[in-house]
Structure of Reovirus sigma C capsid domain protein, putative:
Amino acid sequence: MAAIVFSQEDSDQFIQAAINELDQDDGKLANNVSKVADWAVQVDEGFANVTYGLQNMYDKHGEDFPDLGTYNEEWKGYKEQWTAHLLLSRNIASKHAADLHRFDQVFLSMIQDIQTDQDREDVIAELGEFAKEDHTESADMAQRFKALKADIGGFLVRFEQWIQDTGTKLKQEAYDLSQAINKLEEKIKELDEEIVMATLALLASAAAAGTMIGVIELIVAGTTLAALLISRIEKTLDLSQKQKDLADVNRKQQALAQIKTQFDGLKPDIALICSKLALFGDIWASIQGQTLHFQQTLRRGMEALTDSRFKKEIELARKLCTPLRNGLEIYATQLGSRS
């Protein structure tokens, strides 16, 4: 696919359109940046809902499903990461606001005040020092937010898979127990019939016990009946245990169904968290990229101070700095109450 090439005229028109838009901005750009603080509140609420929900699941069903404890602790770790990242973003927002203020009021102002070639050389040197300042914490923070989003997305997939796998396992256990119970019931029925026959044989042997053969038959019949009764007792006990096990499995299946229903109810909060975390990462990357673009634009334009295009770029840069700075300051202030 061929690359799209913009003409100089198209580029100039774009810059002028951006300037015109900012002239009519009425604080919208600053408000959009500061809105990130509102996102933070929404994400906080989402984390609180999921944290409570998982803890509630563990409190109710942790004895039956110990793995819930592992997932619960894992989620708490994500919430701690979110809090730490948010506090870091507040500090970086304050720093970026200060950087934008310097960029606007010091460096861009210096460019517009250039009168001599020596002034130009001095400004180039100052810009070089400014460009060397370390701004990597912004990209690092963006990466942290995006990594947290990926981790939570993975958590969602693994937890759903655990529910599915556990349900399959319980279903198989219930089937196996039902089959075993059916076989035991059939065996007990057979034993009951054999016991009846053995009892009749014993009674017949007892009637003929006056002879030696009758005594022997009585002993054999008695031994057979005793063995059948013992087997019957063993099978009955085994049946009772299997029935208890099946009742326990059925109870766990019902509990797992409750867990799934409850977790399904948490999915919207998890989806909100993931969508907002992506925005957190993007906005900081965008701000850093904008700052770098300002610097690169100025470095390219220093040898064309009288060029109208360069002047427009400076004008656009200054018009962008103020609302961005205001938005970041509002964001940092709104998060200032967090500890």
